[in-house]
Amino acid sequence: MKKRNIYMIILLVFLIVVSSALWFMNDTRKEKVMIKDILPQAGAIKLIDGASGDPVIQKDFPAIEKIYSIDDKPSAFIASGTGYEGTIKALIVMDNEQRKIAGIRILEQGDTPLYADGIKESWFTDRFEGLGLLEYLNRVVLDPQKPTDIVQVTGASVSSQAVLNNVNSAIGAWNYLETNVKKDPVENFISQEMWEKDENSFMISWPDDNSVRITTEDLAQYPQVTTETILQKTTGVKIDTRASGPLLKDILKKKGIDIDSYEAVGITGRDNYYAMISKDIIQSRDIILATMLDDKEIPREEKPVRIVVPDEMGVYWVKMVNKIELYTHISPKDIQRVYIFDALVRNIEPYYYEYYGSKDKSYLVGKILSKFDYVDQNGFFTMAGSDGLIKNETISMVRDRYYIKTEGQNAPMNIGPAFKLGMNVKEMSHFSTTTDAVIFPGVMMKIIDEETIPQGKAMRLRAALEEAGMVLENGDKLVLTDMNGKEYRISSSEAKNAYLLPSGNKADVIAGDMTIKDMLRISKIQN
What we know:
Elements: H1 2-38, E1 45-47, H2 55-60, E2 64-70, E3 73-82, E4 87-95, E5 100-109, H3 113-116, H4 122-125, E6 138-140, E7 149-151, H5 157-179, H6 192-200, E8 201-206, E9 210-215, H7 216-219, E10 225-232, E11 238-245, H8 248-254, E12 264-269, E13 274-278, H9 279-284, E14 288-290, E15 292-293, E16 296-297, E17 306-308, E18 321-327, E19 337-340, H10 341-344, E20 351-355, E21 358-364, H11 365-369, E22 380-385, E23 390-394, H12 395-399, E24 403-405, E25 413-415, E26 428-432, E27 436-439, H13 441-447, E28 451-453, E29 456-460, H14 461-467, E30 477-482, E31 487-491, H15 492-496, E32 499-503, E33 506-511, E34 514-516, E35 519-525
Parallel strand pairs: 6-7, 8-18, 19-27
Antiparallel strand pairs: 1-2, 2-3, 3-4, 4-5, 8-9, 10-11, 11-15, 12-13, 12-18, 14-17, 15-16, 19-35, 20-21, 21-24, 22-23, 22-26, 24-25, 26-27, 28-29, 29-32, 30-31, 30-35, 32-33, 33-34
């Protein structure tokens, strides 16, 4: 009986060893295929046995788990470290000839999927491709200033840093093995200070580069208010909510700031969501920095606070607040020109942006703005959807980070890296800067009374212009410019009886006996 038990134990151990070996070999085979995919010109790829056990690598670059050679040179590294709450594992492949990073792949992502899955997307991993191997990389929040700066995934700063730690560990190990240069050690974990700061504090800033960081501990020192309100989502869903926390105005007052003296408040979340609260809302509503919802502490993924504006739409209820900005001046809207979108972007090369599994024709907002004569940086980029949602963003935020996708579900719609579904302005009817507006005639006709004229379904031209924000007075003149640059003039009163006629991706204007084909813009000339 004892012998039988011994045999069973030996057999079990043997099976475990064989299974582990097969698993390891299968894992290795997959990694070799991935290396070849990243670096197609790679020659013989071999796992370097025991390389990760080198005393220097173990001590200085503990994230390194495996090292592969390409043509007998160390070239690919499997690195693993801790992120926000789980393991981040990456494959980093080097191009030895160019002495650059050929590419990286995220093999394992154990952080919160809602916020950290962006680190697996190509729009993030592609940022490492082609970077040199002689210097470590730095994580930055927004605009890179140096070639070694990597813009993080918004809302996932800790996970992004974990990826950088993996890549820097590979750079350090490569330099040690290939060039015999010992670089500074790289940890395989994120310091508690970093993730606690991300989770438990936010910044308030105001003009002239003034700012203060507020922690969740600070919030407890202020009077707490509780309100019963309704969270109304853009989908139409209404949720009864009980919110508790200090008022923004009380926090600012203690810092010597009168919120009523500012024109607007901009609030940004770690997930890149932005909402601008206008002066009329500031003066008529309480803005609560909620730390409790329905008598429970807000969940970790919404910390440090959630903005609650009672009796206002949920678009203002920003989660994961990381910055509150106070604006002393916002240039008022004075729309002088209204463009037809398709005509405006006709000579802009579209970008086929992959967003939630759909790759659709899209246009970078910055390229669209370059078509205007002037863009006031103190103004706002305003987007309006067919559902009545109007959203304001700062020009600096949308210029290089937002695209307008014109195909696929909910188009036209604003999208961008780390931009979650539900933050979008869907079926956009128009957008505008301070003086220029751009309309999507097909969507615009859904919110303006549609009429049938001999030429087809159309809408009143003046109604479309006014919906886009152009204010017309009696005596104002309009200059209508087609795609050939030919100009036509009509009065604002004539515009009442003129029609804008969507025609495929174009729009025509019918004004009396005059038909203007393929309209580019309508400009106002004040009396």
